[in-house]
Structures are given as structure tokens and as C-alpha cells.
Amino acid sequence: MKKLQRLELLKDFVQEAVDRGASSVQAVHQYIADLPFEALQQTGLINEDKAGLRQKHRQTIGVVYDAIRRINREIGQLISDQFENLEESTIAAERIAPQAKPASRPDPEPLPSVKPKAARGKAVTAKKAAAKKQPAATAAAKEPAARKSPARKKAG
Length: 156
Prior knowledge:
- By secondary structure, the chain is an all-alpha fold.
- The chain has a domain at about 5-100.
- About 75% of the residues lie in helices and about 0% in strands.
- The chain contains four helices and no strands.
- It has helices spanning about 5-45, 50-100, 115-135, 135-140.
């Protein structure tokens, strides 16, 4: 089985799991949402006129979970379309490949070797560390002596 077919089967499996999961959660949600309505009905606080609230609540819950399932189907269809496009482009590339004649190109010249940036940074750091270890006298010997300027005479 090709990799693309396995991916599509996995997509179908996930899509089915989301659909079944949404249906299960909806059933639990409906059951829990009905508990207060049942308690109020048993005590007589909700009469038949207000029973429409319970139905409206059930419809609202249904709309939400129907939207989740619809979005799941649309995403699944979008992914399936992309798999199909990929398969078609692969088939087209395989058909074109034998017809194309390879152009003879000269071998490219090798690129000059360059130290990786990290290696250059370590070399600079090593030089700085060595400079810090030098005694002050050695550092002073490397610096040119300061010139003494002739003393200015005060004009008088």
C-alpha cells in the first residue's frame, strides 16, 4: 500500500472518530442538560406552556454538534481533494519523465569551502580569551608610546 493511501486511510479514521465523538458528547450533553428540566417538571415548577424551553435548549445543542460534524466533513473533503491533486500530479510527472530528454550540462564547479559561522565565532572568542590572559606589561609593550608634546609657554 502506498504511503499516500495509508495517509488517506488515517484521515478517514480520524474523521470518523471525530464524528462519533461529537455524537457521543452530544448525547451526554443532552442528558445532562435535561436533568434540571426534569427536576423542575417533577416539582411542578414548569408547566406544559414552558416545556418549549426544554425543546429550544435541545435544538440549540443539536445545532452546535451538527456544526462540528459538518466542519469535520468539510475538512475531510478538503484533505481528500488535496490527496487527489497530489496523486494526479505524481501520475502526470511519471508520464512526462520518460518523454523528457536530459539536457547535458557541464559539471558545476565545487564551491569554495567556508567555515561555518559557529566555528568562526569560536575562533574569535578564543582570541579574545587569549588577549585577556596576557599580562599588562605585554599589552603595554604592544601599544605605541605616547608622544610628549612640548610644553607651551605662556604668552605674556
